[in-house]
Amino acid sequence: MGVLKFSDGVEISFRLDSHDNVDDTIDAIRRLDIGGGNTNIALALRTARTRMFPVRPNSTTDFVIPRLLILVTDGTATAESARTLPEANLTKAAGIHIFTVRQMLLFRRCLLRLVICPIAIIA
Asked: Could you tell me the pLDDT band of residue 123, with boundaries at 50, 70 and 90?
């Protein structure tokens, strides 16, 4: 688990196990440099699925610990937009639950297709 920033590219900013208390984690989030660029949700989903939630052969904890992805975005997909829904489906098929949080105005219909159920959308 951790924080992954995305726009034109992705960057795993830090893993949650790199901080041992809530205050340090919040400070690390506040220090994040949030830049501009495109909104490549497909790349973010693909990277989260393969690098942050990889399937480990013979692991007994893979599906015991909930696999939650909170996607915070400020816009609709502008890069690889045709891959966004397929990547969301692959992510959900991997047992990862996607929750979306929007900043500013965002096309609600796009988010509705990404999540498991509409109740997961936080307006």
From this structure: very low
- Radius of gyration of the chain from its Cα atoms, rounded to whole angstroms: 14
How far is 121 from 114, CA to CA, in rounded Å?
10
Number of domains into which the chain is organized: 1
For residue 96, what is the domain's CATH number?
Answer: 3.40.50.410
pLDDT in tens, 63-101: 567 788 878 777 778 888 899 899 999 998 988 888 877
Q: In one letter, which amino acid is 58?
A: N
Which helix (H) or strand (E) segment holds residue 114: the answer is helix 108-114
Can you tell me the distance from the alpha carbon of 32 to that of 56, in angstroms, rounded to the nearest whole number?
29
User: In which domain, by residue range, is 10 found?
Assistant: 2-122
Q: Which of 98, 45, 101, 96 shows the shortest CA–CA distance to 67?
A: 96
Q: N- to C-terminal Cα distance for the chain?
A: 24
**Integer Cα distance of 14 and 17 in angstroms:** 8
The larger pLDDT score, comparing residue 106 to residue 54, is at: 54
